[in-house]
Amino acid sequence: GQHKIKFIPEMVGPILEMTLIPETELRKATIPIFFDMMQCEFHSTRSFQRFENEIITKLDHEVEGGRGDEQYKVLFDKILLEHCRKHKYLAKSGETFVKLVVRLMERLLDYRTIMHDENKENRMSCTVNVL
């Protein structure tokens, strides 16, 4: 109800952790909570910048800690885009946000993989991409 806004951004991290559990049905059921958070903050402030900043920060930390995979990236993209495109006011900004997070996830997952590569040039190139 009206108290949802009080949980943003504090609940972004715990919900992100839950959505990163490698269980497809759990992911499908919980990723839409992010859209609800975006929508809630947007209706309150006309932006969802606090949510956006928090999810990017927490995602970086979680992927670095070994969580997240290609399947998560695909589901995140598909589910949030579907929700955003149906919303009158969040269609454009929501799609921009989702694409930004998906690109970040791609780079973070690549970075995590390449950190075990012996080739320092590959690691440096991947580091530059993340930055």
From TrEMBL:
Gene Ontology terms describing biological process: cell migration; myoblast fusion; small GTPase-mediated signal transduction
Phylogenetic placement of the source organism: Eukaryota, Metazoa, Chordata, Craniata, Vertebrata
InterPro entries: DOCK, TPR_DOCK
One of the Pfam families matching this protein, by short name: TPR_DOCK
Coiled-coil ranges per UniProt: none
Gene Ontology MF annotations: guanyl-nucleotide exchange factor activity; small GTPase binding
Segments forming domain Dedicator of cytokinesis TPR repeats region: 1-79
Record's protein name: DOCK1 protein
Gene this chain is encoded by: Dock1_3
GO CC terms: cytoplasm; plasma membrane
Superkingdom, taxonomy of origin: Eukaryota
